[in-house]
Design brief:
With 215 residues, this protein is an alpha+beta fold. Helix content is 24%, strand content 26%. Strands 2-1-3-4-10 form a five-stranded mixed beta sheet. Strands 8-7-6-5-9 form a five-stranded antiparallel beta sheet, with no helix packed on it.
């Protein structure tokens, strides 16, 4: 679950030091170098301190994704650090981003207010996602959570929902492969227990952000 590559990535991404990590772990400074050099294994009791100190469990919230609702934000206009963070109960191996689901077209599997975490970069060709649910961004900018189906030509797809008419013959700019989904109730419990954004100014829910942006 937690390997040397993840620790190295966390040190590089956060700019934090091995000495600071050792202090967070409660070990002597040389212990981190031993772990990175393969001379020492990470103990079970050290996983959480490493994960939290290096922020290996944080996925930035990059906005909303429509499951029935139409979401049309320009993906590139979202601040690089996101609108806040989702703190997951385990470290993430690759770069991920999170979206809040809006709409009910994917009920009963996904509800409005749930959060879905996807890989930031599209790791596989479009054809490998046929028949799978994913977060997609259309060439025209809209963003959806849908099931991707083969279109009439290789350049287009159909987007199916559980409770809405399909969106037929659209071109995709990006496919966000689903890493995990979090029901809103579970999310609130995790947030109350241990989640914290990068900055105090971001200590609010996704819903609070959108309410304030509309007033």
């Amino acid at each position: 679950m937690l390997d040397v590559a993840m620790i190295e990535r966390g040190l590089e991404k956060t700019g934090k030091s091995k000495g600071g990590l050792a202090a967070a772990m409660g070990v002597r400074p040389g212990a981190v170098s031993e772990i990175l050099g393969g001379e020492r294994l990470v103990k079970a009791s050290e996983i959480i301190p490493i994960m939290e100190y290096l922020e290996l469990n944080l996925a930035p919230i990059m906005g909303r994704v429509g499951a029935g609702a139409v979401i049309e934000p320009d993906y590139e206009q979202v601040p690089p650090e996101g609108l806040g963070d989702i703190a997951l109960p385990f470290p993430i191996m690759e770069e991920t981003v999170a979206f809040e689901i809006v709409g009910d077209s994917m009920l009963p599997k996904y509800e409005s207010g749930d959060v879905i975490v996807v890989y930031k970069d599209q790791r596989h060709p479009l054809s490998s996602f046929y028949g799978e649910e994913a977060v997609v961004r259309l060439k025209t900018g809209e963003r959806y959570l849908k099931t991707i189906e083969r279109g009439k030509t290789p350049s287009v797809v159909n987007l199916n929902s559980f409770n809405a008419k399909p969106i037929v013959g659209v071109k995709l700019e990006w496919v966000g492969e689903i890493c995990l989904s979090m029901p809103k109730g579970q999310l609130e419990r995790l947030r109350a227990k241990s989640a914290r954004p990068r900055k105090k100014s971001k200590q609010r829910s996704i819903s609070d952000f959108w309410k304030s942006s509309l007033t």
